[in-house]
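Table S2 (text version). Query chain:
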Amino acid sequence: MKKLIILISICASLFALDIKKAYYESYNYEKMGDYKDAIKVLIPVYNKYPNGYTLNLRLGWLFYLSKKYQNALDHYKKASLTAPYSIEAKLGIMRTYLAAGDYDNALKVGDVVLKIDYYNYYGNYYEVVALIAKKQYDTALKLTDKMLSLYPTSVLFLVELGKIYYIKDKTKAKQIFEDVLILDPNNVIAKEYLNK
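Corresponding structure-token output:
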């Protein structure tokens, strides 16, 4: 019996080392932009723990980077089911819907996130992006103003504010984008709008 316990303990330790090695290799592949192999090295771990929260979150991210949005959604949703109160999994779902151009579903998930955490930075940001894409500028402006009252120098929200005002008041938009360049001198979006 004692030998069996020792054998099980050794096997568990070896598998834990395999998990660490798989994650280590996955992060290295990701740094190189090799998302296919970053995913591939995690598959043996996934086969062993298909409902693992962290693993599904990681696979969701890697499939998102690979632009395989349905796969990303599947893993983010599995992570969200495993940890129903997790905001980070829901943000992954929102980000993926936005990338896929599914703004309605991004807003549905965003509403859930903001009910849990009204001032969630990325939840509000993704909502603003979706609202602007749907040309719902007044609602986007309200959310942007709310977040800029908390984060007055947030380049992300200032850029979105500039986009909103580009539709409403180009002179004010230009001022906003010039302010963005003070905070972020290489901001590509601000430069693009100033050159329009």
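Notes on Table S2: DSSP finds twelve helices and no strands in the chain. The chain has a mean pLDDT of 91.
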